[in-house]
Amino acid sequence: MRRYFNTEGLCKPDKHYMVRLDDRLDKIKRLYIDREKYFTINRGRQYGKTTTLRALAEYLKNDYIVISLDFQAIGTEEFMDAQSFVKAFAKEFMVAAKRYPGVDEALLQPILEIADGTADKNLRELFGRLSRLCDAAPEPIVMMIDEVDSASNNQVFVDFLAQLRMYYLDRDNRSAFHSVILAGVYDIKNLKLKIRPDEEHQYNSPWNIAAKFSLDMSFSTVQIAAMLQEYEEDNHTGMDVNAIAQSIHDYTSGYPYLVSAICKIMDEELLETGKFRDLADVWTREGLTEAVKLLLKENITLFDSMVKQLDTYRELKEMIKEIIYQGKQILFSPAEKPVSLGIMFCFIKEADGRLMVDNRIFEMYLLNLFISEEAVRSAIYQNGECDKNKFIRNGRLDMELVLQKFVEHFSKVYGNNDEKFVEAYGRKFFLLYLKPIINGTGNYYLEAQTRDARRTDVIVDYAGEQFVVEMKIWRGKEYNERGEEQLAEYLDYFHQKKGYLLSFNFNQKKETGLKTITVGDKVIVEAVV
User: Fold this and answer.
1) 145-177 tens-digit pLDDT
2) Which structural domain range is residue 439 located in?
3) Based on the structure, what is the number of domains in the chain?
4) Domain CATH number, residue 142
5) What are 349's strand-pairing partners?
């Protein structure tokens, strides 16, 4: 069977094109399992946690007995009290243990007696029997529990963690699991926030024994390239593997699901659009741009979950809006609730001590989401909607005319507002104006490499053509000239000869409108509002 890119659950190397995990598995074994650590793997939705756990179980099987559980297999009602939970846990433990040939029936008999109801069903009895099992087992036992946060709203789960902690601390006196891994989205100390985000809670989880798990689970450009090379060997597209891998990483920052989703669309869907002749035509920058556009239109679980969390945690949503719309520099402070939640969900990340949206795909999706929420009541969006047919000539976008019309509308609608208002919202207004003009054919994103509190670069992709538009607040002639030089240098990165500069100027003697300047071999069209 031909291998394919998989986005529906567990990935298997014999069936799917996937990033090889050998280096990651070796690090987890050496740094955590061999050192008898108890730890939690917290990452966002569809971040490859389950695939990593399954691969790790296989990787460890020659040295350890690995008991792999999934708390989603235990029904909600079975978490309601200790007796129900202990019996359900024992049953799942039996099923997982029987997968190992070295674990015989006699060894499992103490757990079986709990599962079939012939022994007391309480946590103390369960852990006493698990301790005897660990003592008698021919190899050290590693227990992995996936989707652990599905149990988070129950006291019995907190008591379960307390028992794990007690046996961990008392390992010199009685046998316990060699290592324990809990995997889920929510950090154990934040579990109560999941069900009651509006209340104050104490962060006193019994899981304070956990070692910090700091391994990077995103895919590097090199890892993506290795996966694409396997695909290329099977399909002979002639793609520039390294260039495509770099571009995919630029969009996704290595978020596992997004990497696979883009590749899947390119492999399976783009030819059906009729825009590409063959796979050689697909696996290009143009094909990648089209795949991103299709991905952003899809109703996927990852995006649905993001919207749900932002609606639940309004402070997090407002913070991300400030980052995207205003280019606001927010210091990384994990003690702040919106920051810790955003990092935990993998919506945002820390870079050089400041916060930024985790990846370009998320930023594009969130930008579209925020704009759609404001479009109905936005006068500047309605202006863009009315003007949209004026800017497309022979299938190409006239960015110069876009800037000219935006200056006219902005001056009329917002010209009397003060500097503080425009500095906070000027960028947003341009993005609102631009959205209906390119909608359906083009995309845009904010370039994180250059964004700061005073300038933001917007990269617009339209019908295979790219436009670099810098937006900035006027800070004097010298600062403006320096900005022109920076834009000219940045155009080299995108192999562009022409760039666009949108300046929000509050000088009373300013001259609004457009002018064209030359910086070296670059042409810059500057629009002054």
Assistant:
1) 999 887 666 788 888 999 999 999 999 999 999
2) 378-529
3) 3
4) 3.40.50.300
5) 356
